[in-house]
Amino acid sequence: MKSQGFLRPYRSELSGRNQLARAVWALVWALFCRPSPRPLHAWRRLWLRFFGARVARRTAIYPSARVWAPWNLEMAPGSGLGDGVECYNVDRIVLEEDAIVSQYAFLCTASHDITDPGRRLITAPIHLGRSSWVCAGAFVHPGVTIGEGAVVAARSVVVKGVAPWAVVGGNPARFIKTRVLRSDATDSTVPPKPEPETK
């Protein structure tokens, strides 16, 4: 087999200031947020904001969630990070209004270039549209946008953008069906205007 060359030792491309800020943040979360009672979302929002997060009122961040870099997090009203969620936001993560990330899901904004001998860091933001839902244990790849009202089924691996009001699942995630909401008044279906395929 022909030699493919050699890997170089990996060296972090993140600044010393960034690494220090993350170390201080991790300590603060461990001491003041992780042990806090589940209903004290306002207390955890306070600390996230202090470290640069743009977190609206009426958001829920559970104590066992892990936010890698608060300064790269934006959460609109009604959005939430559930128990055990990994918010690996080396790049930005934005949750629009009422976007929900359920327990043990992993939002990943960074990877490494496997063709580069030094394994160069690659980052891309993640955007969750209004009323979207990432279900339990799902993995969302760097650069993914999940459209308004879309649902990512439990344990799915999402590597491409998800169209508004689509339900996707599997590894890799594929279109399952269009999400259609019932009307409270008549109990009839009220279809939104989806594009029922993964981008």
Put the structure in a nutshell.
With 199 residues, this protein is of the alpha/beta class.
Give the key terms.
five-stranded parallel sheet; UDP N-Acetylglucosamine Acyltransferase, domain 1; 2 helices; alpha/beta; seven-stranded mixed sheet
Please provide the count of β strands. 21
Topology as H/E string?
HHEEEEEEEEEEEEEEEEEEEEE
Main pleated-sheet profile: 7 strands, mixed
CATH fold type: UDP N-Acetylglucosamine Acyltransferase, domain 1
Give the distance, in angstroms, between the N- and C-terminal Cα atoms: 38 Å
Low-confidence stretches: none
Query: How would you name the CATH homologous superfamily?
Result: Hexapeptide repeat proteins
Spatial shape:
flat
Radius of gyration: 19 Å
Estimate nothing, just give the exact number of structural domains: 1
Can you name the CATH architecture? 3 Solenoid
- Overall pLDDT: 92
Report the sheet-strand fraction. Answer: 25-35%
Name the helicity range.
10-25%
Number of helices: 2
Q: What is the topology, as strand order, of the major beta sheet? A: 2-5-8-13-16-18-19
- CATH class placement: Mainly Beta
How does the helix and strand content classify structurally? alpha/beta
